[in-house]
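Reminder: ligand-aware prediction takes two inputs, not one.
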Amino acid sequence: MPARVHTVAVIGAGKIGELVLSGLLRSGWPADRLLATARRSARAEELASRYGVRVVDNLVAVDEADVLAVAVKPQDAGALLEEIGPKVPADKLVISLCAGLPTAFFNRRLPEGTPVVRVMTNTPALVDEAMTAISAGAHATGEHLALAEEMFKPLGATVRVPESQQDAVTALSGSGPAYFYLLVEAMIDAGILLGLPRQVAHELIVQTAIGSAVMLRDSGEHPVKLREAVTSPAGTTISAVRELEKHGVRAALLAALEAARDRARELASQAD
Ligand SMILES: NC(=O)c1ccc[n+]([C@@H]2O[C@H](COP(=O)([O-])OP(=O)(O)OC[C@H]3O[C@@H](n4cnc5c(N)ncnc54)[C@H](OP(=O)(O)O)[C@@H]3O)[C@@H](O)[C@H]2O)c1
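Here is what comes back for the chain with NAP:
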């Protein structure tokens, strides 16, 4: 059965929920098979007028939708499940987009046997270039994973991972766009330090980032090989690489991603 015959409700349509909603609409998911919920009425009106979907109460969404995509902050998930948990029929698929929260967190608050799929996507979903990692909870079958994939494939790439790897995924690709933006911001500043106009520095770095990313994806080459091709003996690049190594950029990234992974775990323990 094609996934589009299912009605999907985005529960807590904030930043990520809106990305999912707009991505599904762009992919041709019928608007009358999409529902959204919001906590504030101003937000509900905004979503309804922007996307032409029905914005309903959480319990109406539980009643009408086949798939419940939960996109609230991890710290709000407990209260939400207190409200809707007992009312969710065990044949509905619950898709969690919440960073850190294990599927067991949901299963403890949902009727016995409810299938839960844990998904970690990222903000490039806005331009259909998301990276989405999908994991099955205890009661989710291959069919549930396939349905989640069908929802998220039009938004970019998808990968299946064991749930035990999801906190690492959160640190790498969930938060990942922020690291690239920080790098680009710093490189634009460097361009300004070197006397370039801000707009020129911006254009140079953005296109360099796009070109490098496309080469990484399409050449299939290891990043070391691609970097070596730009690093000639006694050239300019190796002088820059020496400074990056001297300032511990590699070690900083290892520590940063470990911190993000630990924060995902901490959020889960606070929500419990
Ligand atoms: N942002 C990212 O890049 C990113 C990436 C991957 C995963 N995630 C995950 O996605 C989830 C959402 O993050 P976000 O950045 O989209 O947060 P957000 O913008 O705050 O969105 C959450 C939305 O849920 C609403 N909400 C909270 N409790 C509710 C309830 N009981 N009923 C209905 N609506 C409710 C909030 O309403 P209010 O507006 O009233 O607060 C808010 O609009 C998080 O679990 C996060 O870990 C985020």
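The pocket of NAP is lined by residues 12, 14-17, 37-40, 43, 58, 71-74, 76, 79-80, 97-99, 120-123, 174 (CB under 6 Å). The chain has two domains: 8-166, 175-268. We will return to this case in the review session.
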